[in-house]
Amino acid sequence: MDHLTIAEIPSGIWNFHPYFSFPIDRTNKTVAEYLEEKNIYWRFGDDKSADLRVYKEENLQNGLLSFRRIKNEYQKKFENIPYINLNGEAQENSRISYLLADPDRTFSVAPGNKFKRLFFPSVWSDPQLEGWDERLDRICWIGRPLPERIRLAKKVNKMGIGLDIYSKEPWPLPNWRGFTENEIATSMNYKYRIVYENSLKNLYHSEKLFSSIRSGCISFYISDPALKLPPLDGVCVPCNETTILNRDEYTKTLIENINRFMFTNIWEFYSFKSFFDRIINFGLKYLDSTS
Predict the structure, then answer these.
(1) Considering the domain 4-121+271-290, what is its CATH architecture?
(2) Pairing label, strands 83-87, 52-57
């Protein structure tokens, strides 16, 4: 096949055209240049002549199926165009999407034991670890004030550890510092960061941890206890009283591991190259199987 035509079905919350000017990996090559190089014709909007449709699942509005969603499900079932689902929502927030999803065609940030793993793509950046000792000897936390998070913040306060919290919605704690426009720049002022996933179920994993790692922070990570991501071994630690109080014992090792992670190709499962290759390879494999 000389080329592959991909039709990205519009979504109300998640569309890929803004990605096209981003670097595909640590090089200066953009996503648009990479797709052109691989003879990928990317169309934004439905195209019945496409070789592959890309659907991005999203939450229901007021618990109701939208016309767009009904149309999408009709296309998947009755129109003879191969497709792939990308689900960027936690299962508890998008139950119908997961119920209707075909496991053989769905990549998800909360795959559980049924779906394939999806990683949100991110731009690489220098964590600037050479200046780590000059950062604030405090913990940064960027996230909404959910009840379980507030309880954890109070425990950290009782440990006597400096903690600064950033979010649009106010926290009922004196640690709240308001909203930050740039979480990477803010995090790079701190030695440590708490990363608390939006869901602790179904192996959910978002871009939050990589944002912390590429900021050069020692990351105290809270996720589904069953989540295993071997490439991340040694670049973060579980968030608990022991790891926070004994942070000086492993800081040097973690900084070395973060440096190795960011300056080799290990990090690339978060890259735009990996993200788009997953879609492209799925389409090519499907077409090969039906040719």
Answers:
(1) 3-Layer(aba) Sandwich (3.40)
(2) parallel
